[in-house]
Amino acid sequence: SSRIPACSSPAMAATMEEEELEFVDELEAVLYLTPEVQQAIEQVFPSQDPLDRADFNAVEYINTLFPTEQSLANIDEVVNKIRLKIRRLDDDIRTVVRGQTNVGQDGRQALEEAQKAIQQLFAKIKDIKDKAEKSEQMVKEITRDIKQLDHAKRHLTTSITTLNHLHMLAGGVDSLEAMTRRRQYGEVANLMQGVVNVLEHFHKYMGIPQIRQLSERVRAAQTELGQQILADFEEAFPSQGTKRPAGASNVLRDACLVANVLDPKIKQEIIKKFTKQHLSEYLVLFQENQDVAWLDKIDRRYAWIKRQLVDYEEKYGRMFPQEWYMSERITVEFCHVTRIELAKIMRTRAKEIEVKLLLFAIQRTTNFEGLLAKRFSGSTLMDGIVKKPEAPPPSTNPFLEDETGVECDTEKEGDLEKPKKPKAPDNPFHGIISKCFEPHLYVYIESQDRNLSELIDRFVADFKAQGPPKPNTDEGGAVLPSCADLFVYYKKCMVQCSQLSTGEPMIALTTIFQKYLREYAWKILSGNLPKATSSSGGLTISSLLKEKEGSEVAKFTVEELCLICSILSTAEYCLATTQQLEEKLKEKVDVSLVERINLMSEMDTFSTVISNSIQLLVQDLDAACDPALTAMSKMPWQNVEHVGDQSPYVTSIILHIKQNVPIIRDNLASTRKYFTQFCIKFVNSFIPKFINHLFKCKPISMVGAEQ
Question: Which of 84, 148, 334, 354 is the most buried (most CB within 10 A)?
């Protein structure tokens, strides 16, 4: 206020004060800094002075300087210090402002100097580039002659090499033609490969007549060699007749080496002719009209090929190269011929096929295929001469030791719960012959249908003859033995059928399994459940009230309770084992047919048997308590004069529960969850009924309510 000149009037003074306040507000707005800028300033110029803080408060600062009234005594000293500080700050600001007056001019001068330096640098770079281009041109002129010499050397070397190859090719073709005429196959085999390799270097020169002529001579020699070798094999192994040479010929052995370097069709034709001639005797011995051709003598077919393989190894083992796998090729061709012949004769004599005969033939055939897998690698099944049969799908069957034959009579039902074993290696020969039996497996399926029907009938007869199971005093309920027998037979059938086929026959067998699982549930389990009794309703109230300790109302006998528990335990076992059976069937069947295997309906059937069994037990115990509850509602509660011991109906209910529940508990010890279900269902049935009868006890006195 000391700096503001005195105003001539109060209005002008007020106006100047308003302008001064607006100036202060504008100054504060201009001096507002963002938190980031303020933080950066504090890092560059750290200060402990309160005046330098962004959140400076003048009132707080003054209160700090003058905390009490007594401190106002030195106010002049404080004011002088602040004025001195302001004067120094003004001097610093003035010095800085004056120092910045020449900055613009200095910056323009520095920019001009930088532009001049850039121009000089550009001129030097251009000069260096021009000198480099001149140097490069000079180097090209110097090395042009050297490059010409290098090209000449390379062309000369190529020409010499080509001429040497041409000389080798011309000489080789002449020698090849001469050796072919003299049937010197041993020398031809080595020479032919060399000539073919040399000829490959002349593919880009085929436009030259002389080169093209040599190439045509080589092809002609190859064709002539192929025809000549085939003629030699035809002469040695004629198609007509079964006479064979005494042993391997050195000429034919060398001819096979030549065939290795000729067109692959020559090799295939040799193999085809030899295998056909080698199996010609087999086709005659086992014609369709011969007695040995039928299934009961199928062993003779496999014995014949074994003898032929031994004979081949002795006479011709060294004639063919080892990489031709002739023993395996003969065997594979024998398998294909056998499959075709067996399929033909079984179609003709389909009515004569019996189950035992069919299983015998399949067992012998699968054993033979297993023997082939041990003897041969199956590598020839991949080439174009023979067609590879369908390989079995990967199996995780835990009973691989049982799949080498069909005798599974000693297996137990517990095997279904064994852990899985490592998967056996695939047999490349699986199904190469046995595939022909698949169209006739309906005979096996029909046989299993009849056998299972007889088995179910036998189970029914045995149950009627032996009667219900005896009360169980041991830990756990008694599972009907017929259940284990059924699933043992199922496992045997499943293993047998999976060895025969993993296709549609497995689906047909699954349908048979489903049929007899349902029949077992209906005829053996549900069909033998005791019928609920209703005779307890005929008892009078007076007789119930007068019954003595230990008396019983009409209900299931102990034997009937044990039977219901046994059927419940059997149904639980069937439910769990049916689920395992479904998993094993899916492992055995082809992947494309897995979705068609579903035993959920049969598992639901066994679940229904379990529910019905529990319901019977609940109804029996519940019905035994009905007369007591009726007696409770009929008692004259308004006439009760004093509270005594428990009423007779309470004694009756406790008696029935103590008689029934321990028996059920002991016989369901192995299936505790179903005993728990029985208890819960009984409580859910009894308590509402008990409460309902309580409401019928009217009229009732206070003493009667206490009783």
Answer: 334
